[in-house]
Amino acid sequence: MASQEIETLTQALSRLPGLGPRSARRAVLWLLKRRDAALPQLVEALAAVQDTLVECGTCGNIDTRDPCGICADPRRDARSLCVVEDVSDLWALDRARLFTGRYHVLGGRLSALDGIRPEDLAIGTLIARVAAGGIDEVVLAMNATLEGQTTAHYIAERLEDYPVRITQLAHGLPVGGELDYLDEGTLAQALRARRPLG
Ligand SMILES: [Zn+2]
Question: Which residues form the Toprim domain (predicted)?
């Protein structure tokens, strides 16, 4: 039977996404065994972000400063804006290092089921950014779900009257994906997004 302190730590870790009670216990044990090497680093890193984390007032990214590192970076292309549902999507796209513009985080997706309306998302601030000018292209990088696509269509309509090119991520075959393993939705998307060879 572990002490109350260890139990509290285990419970806190088990609430992290992707970690259940079992992996939390393994993580705690791992940390305890390395309390001189790994534990101080972790404590320090957590303390460092605790007081400095802010939401970027421009794009909605989470960073230790506002404007965030991406909005403040003069090397990023200010004429290209990529709209995503959540900060995790922004981070995933930015890790891939393929997009050199800036971002706009909606904070979710439209959902009749969950009662999420346009005014619940950062759509007004998106329109304002586009209306302010200086943006040529808006890339809608919503998830390939029904709600994600509904959100993309809604935003495309709201941006209709502005002189910007609106594009969308192609949804198709995953890298290494074999046709007969794909669900029909993915296959249909891949077929619709087909393009000339070469
Ligand atoms: Zn930002």
Answer: 79-174
